Amino acid sequence: MNQMQVKIAKYKLPSISAQYDADMQKANAYLSRLTDLINAVPLNVQLLNTTLKEAIDFIYRLYNNVNNVVATVMMVENTIVFGNRYRSTYADIDSELTRSELCFRNGDYTQALSIAIATIEKIHPGNYENMIRENSSEA
Q: Quick one: DSSP state of residue 29?
């Protein structure tokens, strides 16, 4: 749980869905419920095990979702940084990257990534992954 909150704070994501907040509250409720079940006398092992399994499944799914969002954000940022070197040369690249940035600021990270990749593909068709990898290793 702490790792998820740290990742969100570290990358200063401009927008997080309301679903994330609701999911974090649900995960915290699971943890609270597990604490209550562990402290209960007598210990209801069957209920504890069922609740624990549900909590683990839910929290791992949430953890994976957070990791996917953070990875997408990093890809968008790297793609836009790479594309910035072409902004002054190509007006259409500038406008498309601006569209991507607006999507990014509005929290539509997948759309921002799609626009940014399509923009870079106009300049360097079929070579996107290698360029971004090289650009991120130089930074």
A: H
pTM for the whole structure: 0.79
N-term to C-term CA, the chain: 30
Q: Which residues, including other chains, have CB under 8 Å from residue 133's CB and lie 6 or more apart?
A: none
Token digits for 84?
């910035």
pLDDT tens track for 31-69: 999 999 999 999 999 999 999 999 999 999 999 999 999
Nearest Cα to Cα of residue 37 among 21, 22, 53, 25 = 53
Buried b (16+ CB within 10 A) or exposed e, 40-71: eeeeeeeebeebeeebeeebeebeeebeebbe
Residues 8/23, Cβ–Cβ less than 8 Å:
no
